[in-house]
Amino acid sequence: MAEEHKLHIVMFPWLAFGHMIPFLELSKLIAQKGHTVSFVSTPRNIDRLIPKLPPSLEPLIEMVKLPLPRISELPEKAESTMDIQTSDIQYLKKAFDGLQPELIRVLETRSPDWIIYDFAPYWLPPLAAQLGISCAFLSLVNAWFIAFLAPSAQDMLAGSGQRLKPEDFTVPPPWIPFSSKVAYRLHEINRIFGLASEDIASGVSDMYRTGKVLMGSDAIFIRHSVEFEPDWLNLLEELHQRPVIPIGFMPPLGEDSRDDENNSWLPISEWLGSHSKGSVVYVSLGSEVTLRQDELNELALGLELSGLPFFWVLREQSGLNDDSVKPPDGFVERTRGSGVVWTSWAPQIKILAHESVGGFLTHCGWSSIIEGLAFGRPLIMLPFMGDQGLNARVMVDKNVGIEVRRDESNGSFTRSCVADLQRWVMVEDGGRSCRDKAKEMKAIFGDEDSHKRHISNFIEYLGNQRLK
Ligand code: UDP
């Protein structure tokens, strides 16, 4: 019998931890099957990721450090979205685009079977084709986001002249024949369009980037499961006329014990352990959202007003930014004992897994939703940008959480709404069915067998469909 071909895969994620971490998780799963990976990022990000790599897989996963070209607007040490304000992400994208020559050298010297990347390197698919390397877009945002926006990106690329206005996205577009509830709110799509027009430094909007990688890639891999909302996967395949392979939810199972930067888990687990089962609200807005001072005040005072214990991850931008916003005066002192404001990277998965956590106030990043539901935690949803709003709407429809109301004209929200919804989700009778439904979701989002099946199919696909 012919010996099985050992694959070599290059992974090239966007410089956000919400992207790099799932790319690394997938790298580990590929390596566990005996294949090899070159994981490419910048030096500081690689140093931050290395602790997440189990020693047994180190020989199979090469961590390749490419220095980030310097852009004067970026703080010296900034190499990820976590290090900067949301409005400066455009400069990070510009620097990222400057990695192209170094990446080509990596591809020429490694000659991999596949390169897998996400939305940012719009310039990569034609280069991969020239080098004869199979290339795939790994989407860490959901199928509904790509299905919702991507055909319009294609229109723009094709120069149809059809300029879509923000209002066009507040209803499901005609190419979505189901799920009438999945649409943007006006304030949110205004924000997305606003950010896109600020994308001046990088010269290329996210929509354009996403359209290019979708149209140029040999396949689309997506963090989604055939057991959950499969219609969207079929729709994507139809819309883009190329294989769409779900890699499963990659639920957070058996976290590596070395994954504890700064030995933070011990004090956190002691604090969580001092609270009764299901009583604590875990609050985190992921790795990219930066709050304005007024938003931070309403959120803080809402947490206080609810009277529920909370663990709030409110990271400063790695100390690189002096003008970070701060909780309102006296808030930390008043809530001491009942609440924690954690100002560095938190071991989110371990926290969500802890039995004292009863609910998750989240910005609705796709990874956070998966992680919350894998542990059956109901969601209090406060989406900000990108796919987050659509994620929230799908989850409301599934009755696994409730969304904080925002003013349609300016997107503001109030402390009383934050407090009321927390109490509803966590303790009130009205929220019981939502709590039950979130628990039921564990069977889908945390299903280890489904996860293994998806990964086996995915790796089989990589082996069968490579160009070389
Ligand atoms: N995360 C974490 N600790 C933090 C903040 C975030 O471990 O203090 C992880 C979280 O578990 C998730 C990812 O970072 O895996 C955030 O991804 P998500 O898609 O939810 O949001 P994004 O950061 O992309 O907006």
Describe the protein:
This is Glycosyltransferase. InterPro entries: UDP-glycosyltransf_plant, UDP_glucos_trans, UDP_glycos_trans_CS. GO terms for molecular function: UDP-glucosyltransferase activity. The structure is a single chain. This protein is α/β, with parallel strands linked by helices and 468 residues long. It folds into 2 domains: 8-251 and 447-465, 3-Layer(aba) Sandwich (Rossmann fold), CATH 3.40.50; 261-445, Rossmann fold. It has helices at residues 17-32, 43-49, 89-97, 100-110, 124-131, 143-157, 186-197, 206-216, 230-240, 265-273, 293-306, 331-335, 348-353, 366-374, 388-397, 415-426, 432-445, 448-465, and strands at 8-12, 36-41, 61-65, 114-117, 134-139, 219-222, 244-246, 280-284, 310-313, 339-342, 357-362, 379-381, 401-403. The strands form 2 sheets. A 7-stranded parallel beta sheet has the order 3-2-1-4-5-6-7, with helices on both faces. Strands 10-9-8-11-12-13 form a 6-stranded parallel beta sheet, sandwiched between helices. Helix 1 links the parallel strand 1 (8-12) and strand 2. The longest helix has 18 residues, at 448-465. 46% of the residues are buried. Bound molecules: uridine-5'-diphosphate (UDP). Uridine-5'-diphosphate binds next to helix 1, helix 13 and helix 14. The site of uridine-5'-diphosphate has 18 residues, from helix 1, helix 13 and helix 14.
